[in-house]
C-alpha cells in the first residue's frame, strides 16, 4: 500500500482511520462515500498541477505559439514600410515684445485688446500649428504642387494609396494632415517643438515637415500683422479726430487774438493754463484708453455670452469696492505728482529737493503694492467652478478657453476701473482749475481757455501720431513666431513597421491563447489519464497495466494468438505465454496488492468489472487468475457476462458447455469446469446464448454454485458484465469478498467511473481498488505531476538489460 495514502485522524495520531481489529484496511477499503475531486473542497491553486498540465499539452501549446508567431511575422512582412521625418522649430516665448516711447498704459491696452506685441506661448503656438486653418493651408500648398522629388505624386493626395490614384478632396487631405501631424515639446525647459510625420514615402514626409514649418511661419506672421492692422485702424481714427480738434482750436485762438489784440497773459494765469492743459491732456489720453478697453471688454463678454449667458455678469462681480477705492486713491496721488513735476521739472532728477514729492512717491508705491495684492487675489482665485462647473470634464478645449477669457476680462476690468478712477480725479482737478480761471476777466479767461485747448490738442495729436508711426514700423517688421532649427530630411531607412515587435506580440498572444486552450481542454478532460485522478476518489490504484500493443508487436510480430498446450490463446494472456515480462510483473503486482494489503482479510471471491465495455476486464481476470495460481493456489475463473462473453476466446476454450447448460440442461459441474492452458487455473464459460441472462446470474443456483466453488477452490474470479452498463451481477457483488474496477487509460470517463462507484456503494460492495489498462506513462498526467509513479515497462527493460 502506498504510504502517501495514509492519513492522520482527528486526534492527531498517525493511526489510519480505516484500521479495524489491529489490521490496516485504510482508505482503500473503507465504505464511506467517495470524494468528488470536482466538488471544489480545495480552492487552492496547485501551481505544480498547472505546470504539469502545460507540459502534458506542450505540443499543442508549441503549435499554437508557432502558428500565431508565424501569422504575426507574415503580417509584419506584408506591411508596407513607413518612413518618418522630424523638424524642430524654436519659439521665443515672451510676455510682450512691443514697446514705444509713448504711453505705457496705452501700450498695454493695445496688446490686450488687439494682440499687438503679445508674446508667444508654447502651448498656444502648438494649438495654432495643429489647427484646421494651418492644415488647410498646408493641403492647398500640396495640391498646388503635388509632385515629389522622385517625380511621383504625393501619396497623401491619393484617394486610396496605392490602389486608387484619384485625387482626394481638400477636406480629406486636411483631415489626413491633422491626423498624421505629431507635435510635441522636446523639453519642458526649452522653447523648441518638434514636428513629425509618417508616410509610406520618404520624400513625402520631408515635404510635409518643411511645408508645415513654412506654412505655420506664414500664418503666424499674418496673425501678428492682422493684429497690428487693427491697432493701426484704431489709432488712425483717433489721430484724425485729434488733428481736427487741434486745427479747430488753433483757428479759434488766431481769430480771438486778431479780434481782441490780446496776445499775452500773466504768469499766474499761464501756470493755471499749463496745469489745466496737462490735466486735459491726461483726460484725453484716459478717454482714448477707455474706448479701447471698453471695446475689448465688449468683445470678450460677447464670447463668454456665446458659451453661457450670464457668465460675463458673474465675472464682473469679482471687481470689489476695495479695489476701486485703492485705484481712485492712486489716481489722486499720480495727478498730484504730475502737477508738482509740471511746476518743478527738476524733481524728476532730484526728488529729494521737495519733501512733499518724495512723500508722494512713497505713498504711490504703497498704494500700488496694495492694488497688486488685490489684483493677484482676484486673478488667482480658485473659483473656476463658478464659471465652468456646468461643463463636462471631457470638454477640455472649451474649459481652457473660458479660463483664458476670464483672465483677460478680469485684467481689462481692473484697467477699466483704474481708468475710471483716473478720470474721476482728473475731472475734479479740472473743475478746481476752471474755478480759478472763472475769477479772471472774461477776455483773459477766453484767451486762457483757447490757449489751453490748443496746447492739449497739440500734445494729444503728437502722442497719437508717434504711436501710429511706431505701430506701422512694428507691423512691417513682423515675421512668424517660429524659427527653423532642423528642417525635415528624407530618411534613408524606414521607421516601421517594427516587425520584431509585431512578431513578439504574436508570440505573446500565442502564449496567452495556448494557455487558455490548455486550461480549457483540461477543464473538459474527463478521461482517466493517470492514477492521480483515481486516487482522489478514495480508492487505491492496485496496478497500472502497460499498453500491450507495442509489446505484442515486438514479442509476437503483431499476432493476436499463439498456441499453448494445443490451444490458440490470446497474446493478451501475457502472464501465461511470457511470464518474464513487464506486463506479467504488473499482474503480479495486482495480485500482491490484493492478497497482502489486508492480512486479516481472505479474498476468495474476487469480481472484476468495469464502467463500460472494452476496458480489459476479461484480460485482467485471466491474468489475475494465473498470478493467483503461481502461488500454489487453485483458481477458477467464471465468465458471468452472458451477453458479450470473451473469456473462452481469450483462453482458447469452447464456449459450450457452460453456465447455461449447467442451469438449464442439468449438466454436471465437472463437465462445465474446463482445465486451461495455465497450470492450476480452471474456467467456466458462459455456454450458449439465452434471452434472459439476468435470470441466470441472479438465481439461487448461481449463489449455490459460488458456494460450492469456494469449497473446491482457493480463489474464485468472476468476470462480469460492465457494471456501469449492466447490473446483472449486483447480487454477486454484494456477497463477493472484493470488487476490482478496471478502467482504460484515456478511454474511461470520470463521470462514468463516478456513476459505477455510486451504484456499487449503494449495494455495499467492497471495492478493493482500480486497475488501469493500456497505460502509457509518458502520456499520462502522472508523468509531470506525481513523484511516486514511474514507467514500469521502461524500468523493467532497464533492469533486464543490466542482468
Describe the structure.
- This protein is of the alpha/beta class and 803 residues long.
- It folds into five domains: 1-30, no CATH class; 57-79 and 498-523; 83-226, 2-Layer Sandwich (Bacterial polysaccharide co-polymerase-like); 243-481; 542-802, P-loop containing nucleotide triphosphate hydrolases (Rossmann fold).
- The protein is 56% helix and 11% strand.
- It has 29 helices and 16 strands.
- It has an eight-stranded mixed β-sheet, with helices on both faces. Strands 4-5-1-6 form a four-stranded antiparallel β-sheet. Strands 2-3 form a two-stranded antiparallel sheet.
- Strand 15 (738-744), helix 27 (750-762) and strand 16 (767-775) form a beta-alpha-beta unit.
- Helix 5 (132-144) crosses helix 6 and helix 7 packs antiparallel against helix 14.
- The longest helix is centred in the first third of the chain and has 59 residues, at 202-260.
- The protein starts with 46 loop residues before the first helix and ends with a helix.
Structure characteristics:
803 residues, alpha/beta, Bacterial polysaccharide co-polymerase-like, eight-stranded mixed sheet, four-stranded antiparallel sheet, 16 strands, 56% helix, disordered N terminus
Radius of gyration: 55 Å
- Beta fraction of the residues? 5-15%
CATH superfamily placement of the largest domain: P-loop containing nucleotide triphosphate hydrolases
Main beta sheet: strand number and arrangement? 8 strands, mixed
CATH topology of the largest domain: Rossmann fold
Total number of distinct structural domains: 5
- Which structural class should the secondary elements be placed in? alpha/beta
Number of helices: 29
SS elements, strand count: 16
Reading off the top of the CATH hierarchy, the class of the largest domain is best stated as: Alpha Beta
Distance between termini?
A: 28 Å
Instruction: Provide the spatial order of strands within the biggest beta sheet.
Output: 7-16-15-10-14-11-13-12
Assign a percent range to the helix content.
Answer: 55-70%
Mean pLDDT over the full residue set: 77
What's the CATH architecture of the largest domain?
Answer: 3-Layer(aba) Sandwich
Broad shape: rod-shaped
Spans where pLDDT lies below 50 across 5 or more residues: 1-41, 94-106, 116-120, 381-397
Amino acid at each position: 500500500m502506498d504510504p502517501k495514502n495514509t492519513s492522520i485522524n482527528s486526534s492527531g495520531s498517525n493511526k489510519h482511520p480505516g484500521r479495524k481489529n489491529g489490521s490496516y484496511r485504510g482508505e482503500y477499503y473503507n465504505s464511506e462515500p467517495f470524494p468528488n475531486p470536482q466538488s471544489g473542497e480545495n480552492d487552492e491553486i496547485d501551481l505544480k498541477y498547472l505546470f504539469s498540465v502545460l507540459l502534458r499539452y506542450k505540443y499543442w501549446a508549441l503549435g499554437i505559439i508557432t502558428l500565431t508567431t508565424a501569422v504575426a511575422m507574415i503580417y509584419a512582412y506584408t506591411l508596407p514600410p513607413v518612413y518618418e521625418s522630424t523638424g524642430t522649430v524654436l519659439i521665443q516665448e515672451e510676455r510682450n515684445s512691443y514697446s514705444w516711447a509713448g504711453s505705457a498704459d496705452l501700450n498695454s491696452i493695445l496688446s490686450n485688446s488687439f494682440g499687438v506685441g503679445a508674446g508667444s506661448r508654447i502651448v498656444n503656438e502648438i494649438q495654432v500649428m495643429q489647427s484646421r486653418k494651418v492644415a488647410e493651408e498646408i493641403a492647398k500648398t500640396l495640391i498646388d504642387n503635388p509632385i515629389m522629388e522622385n517625380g511621383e505624386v504625393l501619396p497623401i493626395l491619393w484617394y486610396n494609396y496605392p490602389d486608387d490614384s484619384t485625387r482626394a478632396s481638400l477636406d480629406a487631405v486636411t483631415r489626413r494632415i491633422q491626423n498624421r501631424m505629431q507635435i510635441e515639446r522636446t523639453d519642458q525647459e526649452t522653447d523648441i517643438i518638434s514636428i513629425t510625420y509618417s508616410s509610406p514615402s520618404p520624400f513625402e514626409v520631408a515635404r510635409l515637415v518643411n511645408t508645415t514649418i513654412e506654412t505655420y511661419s506664414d500664418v503666424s506672421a499674418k496673425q501678428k500683422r492682422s493684429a497690428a492692422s487693427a491697432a493701426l485702424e484704431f489709432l488712425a481714427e483717433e489721430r484724425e479726430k485729434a488733428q481736427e480738434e487741434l486745427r479747430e482750436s488753433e483757428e479759434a485762438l488766431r481769430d480771438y487774438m486778431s479780434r481782441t489784440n490780446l496776445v499775452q497773459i500773466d504768469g499766474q494765469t499761464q501756470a493755471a493754463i499749463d496745469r489745466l492743459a496737462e490735466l486735459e491732456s491726461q483726460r484725453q489720453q484716459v478717454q482714448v484708453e477707455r474706448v479701447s478697453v471698453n471695446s475689448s471688454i465688449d468683445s470678450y463678454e460677447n464670447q463668454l455670452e456665446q458659451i453661457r449667458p450670464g457668465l460675463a455678469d458673474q465675472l464682473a462681480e469679482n471687481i470689489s469696492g476695495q479695489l476701486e477705492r485703492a485705484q481712485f486713491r492712486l489716481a489722486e496721488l499720480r495727478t498730484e505728482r504730475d502737477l508738482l513735476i509740471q511746476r518743478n521739472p527738476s524733481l524728476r532728477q532730484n526728488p529729494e529737493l521737495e519733501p512733499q514729492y518724495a512723500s508722494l512717491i512713497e505713498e504711490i508705491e504703497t498704494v500700488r503694492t496694495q492694488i497688486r495684492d488685490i489684483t493677484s487675489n482676484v486673478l488667482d482665485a480658485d473659483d473656476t467652478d463658478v464659471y465652468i462647473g456646468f461643463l463636462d470634464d471631457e470638454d477640455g478645449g472649451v474649459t481652457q478657453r473660458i479660463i483664458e477669457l476670464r483672465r483677460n476680462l478680469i485684467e481689462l476690468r481692473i484697467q477699466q476701473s483704474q481708468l475710471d478712477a483716473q478720470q474721476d480725479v482728473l475731472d475734479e482737478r479740472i473743475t478746481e482749475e476752471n474755478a480759478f480761471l472763472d475769477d479772471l476777466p472774461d477776455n483773459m479767461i477766453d484767451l486762457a481757455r483757447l490757449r489751453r485747448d490748443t496746447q492739449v490738442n497739440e500734445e494729444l495729436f503728437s502722442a497719437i501720431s508717434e504711436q501710429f508711426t511706431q505701430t506701422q514700423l512694428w507691423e512691417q517688421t513682423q515675421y512668424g513666431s517660429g524659427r527653423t532649427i532642423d528642417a525635415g530630411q528624407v530618411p534613408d531607412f524606414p521607421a516601421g513597421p517594427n516587425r520584431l515587435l509585431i512578431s513578439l506580440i504574436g508570440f505573446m498572444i500565442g502564449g496567452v491563447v495556448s494557455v487558455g486552450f490548455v486550461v480549457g481542454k483540461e477543464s473538459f478532460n474527463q478521461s482517466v489519464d493517470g492514477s492521480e485522478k483515481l486516487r482522489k476518489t478514495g480508492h487505491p490504484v492496485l496496478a497500472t497495466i502497460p499498453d500491450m500493443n507495442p509489446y505484442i508487436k515486438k514479442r509476437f510480430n503483431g499476432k493476436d494468438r499463439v498456441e499453448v498446450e494445443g490451444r490458440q490463446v490470446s497474446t493478451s494472456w501475457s502472464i501465461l505465454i511470457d511470464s518474464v515480462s513487464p506486463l506479467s510483473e504488473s499482474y503480479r503486482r495486482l495480485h500482491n496488492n490484493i492478497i497482502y494489503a489486508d492480512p486479516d482479510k481472505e479474498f476468495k471471491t474476487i469480481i472484476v468489472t468495469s464502467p463500460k465495455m472494452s476496458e480489459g476486464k476479461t484480460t485482467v481476470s485471466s491474468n489475475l487468475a494465473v498470478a493467483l495460481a503461481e502461488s500454489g493456489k487453485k483458481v477458477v475463473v467464471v465468465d458471468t457476462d452472458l451477453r458479450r462473453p470473451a473469456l473462452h476466446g481469450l483462453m482458447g476454450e469452447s464456449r459450450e458447455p457452460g453456465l447455461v447448460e449447467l442451469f438449464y440442461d442439468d449438466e454436471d459441474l465437472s463437465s462445465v469446469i474446463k482445465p486451461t492452458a495455465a497450470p492450476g487455473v480452471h474456467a467456466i464459460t458462459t455456454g450458449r446464448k439465452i434471452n434472459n441472462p439476468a435470470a441466470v446470474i441472479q438465481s439461487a443456483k448461481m449463489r449455490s454454485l459460488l458456494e460450492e466453488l469456494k469449497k473446491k477452490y482457493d480463489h474464485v474470479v468472476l468476470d462480469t458484465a460492465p457494471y456501469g452498463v449492466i447490473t446483472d451481477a449486483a447480487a454477486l457483488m454484494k456477497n463477493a469478498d472484493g470488487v476490482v474496477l478496471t478502467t482504460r487509460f484515456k478511454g474511461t470517463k470520470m463521470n462514468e467511473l463516478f456513476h459505477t462507484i455510486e451504484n456499487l456503494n449503494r449495494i455495499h460492495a467492497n471495492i478493493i481498488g482500480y486497475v488501469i489498462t493500456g497505460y502509457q506513462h509518458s502520456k499520462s498526467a502522472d508523468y509531470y505531476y506525481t513523484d511516486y509513479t514511474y514507467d514500469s515497462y521502461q524500468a523493467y527493460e532497464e533492469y533486464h538489460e543490466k542482468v
